[in-house]
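Page 42, continued from yesterday. The earlier attempt failed because a stray header line got pasted into the input along with the sequence. Redoing it now with the clean sequence only.
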Amino acid sequence: MTKSNKKRLPSIEYLKKRYEIDPLTGIGKYKINIPNNGIKIGDIVKGQLKKANVGRYKYVSINGEGYAWHRICFAIYHGIDPFPLDVDHQNLNKLDNSKENLLKITTAKNNENKPIYKNNKLGIRGIYQTQEGRFRAAIYKDSKEINCGTFTTVEEAIQAQNKKKLELNKQ
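This time it went through. Structure tokens are written below.
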């Protein structure tokens, strides 16, 4: 079993007492005073931006612990902690925390949204050129790599990937 970097949120009741969030924008305001941080009722939740693969996520601190703002927004909108699942931004804008943009999904499904890494020389996910000049194709399902074979051309490798995806989706 893989280790999750997600953690449980404080209780929904506590979050609702602390924050008021506009479901159209995802912008939050404090409903409580936090004197040692200079926060007053009605102040906008600023948080801190932390770098992700592409772009940045907003994080807020609650009692010294950092929490992803989009997970808090989801919890308040739907009345449930998304743990252990991911919360996906459907439009891929990590700072758009509106209610309609946040979706609870598995990590595997969320990973399909990842951009192609900078070091990917071909620019095609799951296809790599071997030292012999052939093209190895693979797909990923349930955090496991599934080899689709090695081919003479990139086009053959792409066809093999598509065929394997269809086979797995029928199961």
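Notes: The beta strands are 19-21, 28-30, 48-51, 56-62, 65-68, 86-89, 102-105, 127-129, 135-141, 144-151.
Reminder to self: strip header lines before submitting.
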